[in-house]
Write a structure and sequence with these properties.
The chain is of the alpha+beta class. Helix content is 23%, strand content 30%. It contains 5 helices and 10 strands.
Length: 246
């Protein structure tokens, strides 16, 4: 490391090395190793009220998606855990949009905190903030009261997807404002174990025009995700929109 390297540079190298070592020790994903992946669909209705300035959120549309629900630690069966939802929205041109959210609270003070819970239907927040122009935004997936229940375990999630089309509502909010629903994600058929293992999301690089990651969580994800993926031999999809895995 050159003498002129900054403290941030050294911290990044340390985080990369530690993440890669832990991922090799685990022989898989460092975070959220246990999950189920599904084909899906994202329907965008458009943002109610003032537009966000992000065309993908503000304008109606329908997109093919890849969806993964997971447990963070993971704990056994239906024990409480930090639950995760990853949605890859496939676009006709350019990068896909990778939205990663974790179980959290509804209130503004709890939106930045990953919180353990039992049920897969509930509030998921990006935890990480985004910038859209001068606005600071958070994205979320919320329980749909009219959707089939997702249950308390990954096995129950898979069973729900086989028998019906469970949904979660997508929403956006300012740091302290209410959640504003702009669309929904629907689960379809389950993907195979090999496809699930090869999925590699990029929540910092794979963002739609007008939206950029911000804050310390973005910096941490920028280093931990690639290091973990390299250690397990996966590469995030950053170009094209048709592939589910890379």
């Amino acid at each position: 490391m050159p003498p002129a390297a900054t403290v941030t540079d050294r911290a990044a190298v340390a985080v990369d090395r530690a993440t890669a070592a832990l991922a090799r020790l685990r022989r898989g994903r460092l975070l959220h190793p246990a999950g189920r992946s599904f084909a899906g669909e994202v329907t965008v209705w458009g943002t109610p009220g003032p537009p966000t300035g992000v065309p993908l959120l503000d304008a109606p549309g329908r997109f093919r998606a890849t969806v993964r629900l997971s447990k963070g630690v993971p704990t056994p069966g239906s024990w409480p855990d930090v639950l995760g939802l990853a949605v890859r929205l496939h676009r006709d041109a350019g990068r896909p949009f990778d939205l990663l959210v974790s179980s959290s609270g509804v209130a503004p003070l709890l939106r930045h905190l990953p919180l353990p819970r039992r049920r897969f239907a509930g509030t998921y927040s990006t935890i990480m903030s985004f910038r859209a122009g001068r606005r600071r935004l958070l994205l979320a997936a919320l329980a749909d009261p009219e959707s089939p229940d997702l249950g308390r375990s990954l096995a129950e999630v898979a069973a729900a997807a086989r028998t019906d089309a469970p949904r979660l509502v997508l929403a956006v909010a300012s740091a302290v404002g209410p959640w504003r629903p702009f669309g929904q994600v629907t689960l379809g058929g389950q993907l195979g174990a090999g496809e699930d293992a090869a999925l590699a999301f990029d929540p910092v690089g794979n963002l739609p025009p007008g939206l950029r990651a911000a804050g310390p969580v973005a910096w941490l994800r920028e280093h931990t995700y690639p290091a973990s993926q390299r250690a397990r031999g996966a590469v995030p999809q950053s170009g094209g929109s048709t592939g589910v895995t890379v």
